[in-house]
Amino acid sequence: MSETLLIISFEELCHIEQLSKDMIIEVIDYGIAEPVSGDNTRNWVFDTNSVRWVKKAITLYSQLELDWIAVAMIVELLKQKEKLTEENENLQRRLMRF
Hints:
Number of strands: 2
Pfam family, one: MerR_2
Order of helices and strands: EHHEHH
Strand content: 5-15%
Protein name: Chaperone modulator CbpM
Organism: Alteromonas stellipolaris
Radius of gyration: 16 Å
Number of helices: 4
Largest sheet: 2 strands, antiparallel
Distance between the termini: 29 Å
C-alpha cells in the first residue's frame, strides 16, 4: 500500500491561510515547522503536518500575544506530548492482546 503525501507550496500556504511571508519565515526560522523540500522560499514545499504546526504557531503568536521563542517552546512541548500519547496508545493496544 502506497502512502499519499499531500503537499503545498510556500506561496499557496501564504495565500490559503492569508498569512504574510514574513510570518511563515519566522515560524521556519525558529524551527517550529520545516518545509519538506526546497532550499529557498520559491522552492519550499510543506506537508500537511508542517502546515498544521504553522497554523498552531500563528494562533499562539497572534491570539495569546506570545513571542516566537515562547511559541517555539510550546510547540516543541505539544509535539513531545503528541509523540508520548501515540506511544502510550500503542503500548495500551499491545497490552490488550494479553
